[in-house]
Amino acid sequence: MARRFLVELKLTLSEKAEKELKYLLEVKELGDSYGVRIGVRGGGCSGYTYNLEFGLQHKGDVEMKQNGIRLFTDPKSVLYINGTTLNYTDGLQGKGFHFDNPNATSTCGCGESFSV
């Protein structure tokens, strides 16, 4: 008999990130089945890179909800992003989503890749 382990996603959305994600989900007119897919892939100058997109939940995904926003990730990515805060900035240095990941031991200069 195969054992199943419960994997829990612990991710925080900053107030600005939450506001921007809600806005984008509304503008794109995606139904309630859609959410934000967050994951990690090999690549980038530091070893891993973040992935953020809108989509449906895939079989085996871990799901979390924060103030009405559905967040999905694959179980392997949970190991790398648990405890992370997703921020959104819109200042003079540009705008976009940024990950504040306590698991990252180093990041590259562009801030889009990391290593653990």
Characterization of this structure:
With 116 residues, the protein is an alpha+beta fold. It has one domain (12-111): Hypothetical Protein Aq_1857, Chain: A (Sandwich). Helices cover 17% and strands 42% of the residues. The chain has two helices and nine strands, in the order βαββββαββββ. The chain has helices at 15-27, 75-81; strands spanning 12-13, 34-42, 48-56, 62-66, 69-73, 85-91, 94-100, 106-107, 113-115. It has a six-stranded mixed β-sheet with strand order 4-5-2-3-9-8. Strands 1-6-7 form a three-stranded mixed β-sheet. The mean pLDDT is 83.
What is the element layout, followed by pairings?
Elements: E1 12-13, H1 15-27, E2 34-42, E3 48-56, E4 62-66, E5 69-73, H2 75-81, E6 85-91, E7 94-100, E8 106-107, E9 113-115
Parallel strand pairs: 1-6, 2-5
Antiparallel strand pairs: 2-3, 3-9, 4-5, 6-7, 8-9
For the structure shown, list the relevant keywords.
17% helix; 3-stranded mixed sheet; alpha+beta; 6-stranded mixed sheet; Hypothetical Protein Aq_1857, Chain: A; 116 residues
Task: Let me know the CATH homologous superfamily.
Answer: HesB-like domain
The proportion of residues in beta strands is: 35-45%
Tally of discrete structural domains: 1
Main beta sheet: strand number and arrangement?
6 strands, mixed
Into which percent range does the helicity of residues fall? Answer: 10-25%
Terminal CA distance reads: 33 Å
Identify the strand order in the major beta sheet.
Answer: 4-5-2-3-9-8
Structural class: alpha+beta
* SSE order: EHEEEEHEEEE
The CATH topology corresponds to Hypothetical Protein Aq_1857, Chain: A
CATH class: Mainly Beta
Q: What is the number of helical segments per DSSP (H or I, 4+ residues)?
A: 2
Q: Which blocks of ≥5 consecutive residues have pLDDT under 50?
A: none
